[in-house]
Specification:
The chain has about 350 residues and is α/β, with parallel strands linked by helices. It contains 11 helices and 13 strands. Helix 2 links the parallel strand 2 (about 40-45) and strand 3. Helix 3 crosses helix 4 and helix 10 (about 310-320) packs across helix 11. The relative contact order is 0.13.
């Protein structure tokens, strides 16, 4: 199993209750992650935030084993430029680079993108990933697609092996076709076990039906984990955090992620998480859905809450379904990077779990 953390990629302090805001802060968090069992961490992307490649290159240069999982959007890059940048960072870091392809909408006008509807967006992403792999593994590439074209293109240097592994997210039918054919790892948000099992089965069938020509698709979980010494302490802190989120939202006149997304139309995966609140505040053994009603979004919409044994047992149940990659997080980052790493990684690797 692969265990990755999350490092905020932002210049503004106060992100999700933490004060990380500089490259030095990111390097410090990466070093803490190295020391406490994490293989690496995800760096998020979004227009108006620092460039993830620049941050990741700086962090990789100042760490030893840490593997940056760099989120990128095809709309920011031409494939050949991206393939060259990624190959260079992978080469300089000794093969430590991982890539998270993000295809959701962003502030298109701010960076001059002109992508169309969902079908077009994912078709472009699929072509972007296919051409990137070709550039990593071949020389003098000529490619003419619907969205991208290159002639006699060679990336120098080539990355290690066949190139960085490509993580991908998305729950719509269009996104799942991309994952089934082009991704190395499909990332899921924190859904209950039955939902994840259903999606794994569907993606495996899609891979066969669509003639996947890559090694079998692997699966990952991106979720918040609130871990304390005892079950009682964990739930007390989780409920206090959600109460504080609710109070802050009320004072700001904020209607919460659920209301915002329902008005403007969320991504399919985010809507799946928001709909979980109708099934109850706690699903499976310790999946907490209430954060999504009070401002939690993305990986913060649902949390796994409990003692180290509680949360490790819950994660092992995901592993039993076929999840091999875990991208976890909680705030404040400095404290929780160490706490969660020490509490969970050894238990999971050794299989010392309470079922």
């Amino acid at each position: 199993m692969r265990f990755l953390w999350y490092i905020p990629n932002t210049v503004a302090p106060g992100h999700r209750g933490d004060d990380s805001a500089t490259v030095d802060d990111s390097v410090e968090l990466a070093r803490i992650a190295e020391q406490h069992g994490w293989e690496g961490a995800l760096f998020g992307t979004g227009w108006g935030r620092p460039d993830t490649f620049t941050v990741a290159a700086t962090v990789a240069a100042r760490t030893t084993t840490f593997r940056p999982l760099v989120a990128i959007r095809p709309g920011y890059w031409q494939p050949a430029h991206f393939a060259s940048s990624a190959a260079t960072l992978d080469h300089l870091s000794g093969g430590r680079l991982l890539i998270n392809i993000v295809s959701g909408q962003d502030n298109l006008a701010a960076y001059g993108d002109v992508e169309g509807d969902q079908a077009q967006r994912y078709a472009r992403t699929r072509e972007f990933m296919r051409l990137t792999r070709l550039l990593w593994t071949s020389e003098r590439v000529t490619f003419s697609g619907e969205h991208f074209h290159v002639t006699d293109s060679t990336v120098v240097p080539h990355p290690h092996g066949t190139g960085p592994r490509l993580y991908f997210g998305g729950a719509s039918p269009a996104a799942e076709k991309v994952a089934a054919t082009e991704a190395d790892v499909q990332l899921f948000w924190g859904e209950p076990l039955d939902g994840v099992a259903e999606r794994i089965d569907r993606l495996r069938r899609l891979s066969a039906d669509l003639g996947r020509d890559l090694p079998p698709l692997e699966f990952g979980l991106r979720i918040t984990t609130l871990v304390r010494d005892t079950t009682e302490e964990a739930w007390r802190d989780a409920e206090a955090k959600v109460a504080a989120m609710s109070s802050a939202a009320d004072q700001a006149g904020f209607e919460g992620q659920a209301g915002v997304f329902r008005r403007r139309g969320p991504a399919v995966g985010q809507q799946r998480l928001l709909d979980l609140t109708e099934r109850g505040d706690v699903l499976d053994s310790c999946l907490y859905t209430a954060p999504g009603r009070h401002g939690g979004g993305g990986a913060g919409t649902t949390w796994l809450v409990g003692s180290p044994d509680d949360v490790a047992a819950a994660l092992r149940k995901y592993a039993d379904l076929g999840i091999d990659h875990f991208v976890l997080s909680d705030t404040p980052y400095r404290e929780e990077t160490a706490r969660v790493g020490d509490a969970l990684i050894g238990r999971l690797r050794a299989g010392a779990l309470i079922s």
